[in-house]
Automatic annotation (TrEMBL):
Gene Ontology molecular functions: metal ion binding
Name of this chain's protein: Periplasmic nitrate reductase, electron transfer subunit
Segment forming the signal sequence: 1-24
Keyword tags: Electron transport, Heme, Iron, Metal-binding, Periplasm, Signal, Transport
């Protein structure tokens, strides 16, 4: 008896789903082909919009706002390749290259595996630098920011 009730309930649900799908298909079929899309910006979507850069990259090291904050990148990384096969940040910041390039060396935490083993290569979990580190730019604030660093 319970199986019969369950099967009939499932069939009713499937029938309702198919009916809703058919209604949606018929609505789409009758929609005019010249439907317009309204843009949030109030611009025709077909119009090419040019965007001027509103910021410039700041050079030099920045102070951190709290003790465990990852350092901010003081240079552009716009064309850097950081993927599974390459990481251009290591060309300067890897411990083997940092002295020659006069760049800060990565923290030893970047050379520690998830099991706590120290290695000579960057740990896979620390490979994608821009996962924690971001370039510093002089950009206008999009929203009010009331954040105060731990030293203030």
């Amino acid at each position: 008896m319970k199986k019969a009730i369950l099967i009939s309930a499932l069939l009713a649900a499937a029938t309702a789903s198919l009916a809703g799908f058919a209604a949606a298909q018929s609505t789409l079929a009758t929609a005019p082909e010249t439907a317009t899309v309204n843009s949030i910006r109030g611009v025709d979507p077909e119009t090419q919009v040019t965007v001027n850069p509103v910021y410039h990259q700041e050079e030099g090291r920045k102070n951190r706002n709290y003790r465990a904050q990852p350092p901010i990148i003081p240079h552009t990384i716009e064309k850097y390749q950081i993927d599974l096969h390459a990481n251009e940040c290591l060309a300067c910041h890897d411990w083997k290259n940092a002295a020659d390039r006069r760049a800060p060396t990565l923290s030893m935490t970047h050379y520690t595996s998830r099991d706590g083993v120290q290695t000579d290569t960057v740990a896979p979990r620390r490979w994608f630098c821009n996962q924690c580190h971001v370039p510093q730019v002089d950009a206008p604030a999009l929203v009010d920011n009331l954040f105060k660093g731990s030293e203030e």
